[in-house]
Amino acid sequence: MKRSTNRILTSHVGSLVRPPEIAALFPDRPAGKPFDANERRVLDKTINEVLKQQVDAGIDIPSDGEFSKSGFAGYIVDRLTGFEPKQGSAPFQRGRDRIRFADAYADIDSAGSSGRSGVGAQQNIVCAGPVKFVGEALVREDIDRLKAAMQAAGVEEAFVPATAPGTIELQRPNEY
Q1: Other C-beta atoms within 10 Å of 126: how many?
Q2: Other CB atoms within 10 A of residue 135 CB
Q3: Which helix (H) or strand (E) holds 21?
Q4: Which of 22, 89, 127, 135 allows an S-S link to 18, with CB 3.0 to 4.6 Å?
């Protein structure tokens, strides 16, 4: 792990803005569908670029920007079983910022994009059965892709962001 006694090392949390070619990979994509060869080339290219952009901006410990994931938390349906959309279920709990700054979230909450994140007007995703990790191949691809980008950029340390269990629990009510 990088250490510094001279300054605070920088990183960032979570998703970075996805370029159009990455955003185009996810609308209506079935959960768990592997990327084809062309999609993997797009991911390789854009992750190499975003890693270099982070380094050029002074980020000490960059990430893959979560480009291989459908969104901040919605991607769990690709990697965990037990979650499913449910019409008429209670919406996920609102965090303090969503309550306090409701106007700032109004567009997001009414948009209803891909339906996989469980946000706002989209179907609510609930825990409806046993949770089991099934995303090992996807995680392996993420790690391999990030390692290749690190090597190309001369980066010695990076990270793969992951949704915390508390976020999953907050956004996916347990109806199991």
Answers
A1: 21
A2: 17
A3: helix 20-23
A4: 22
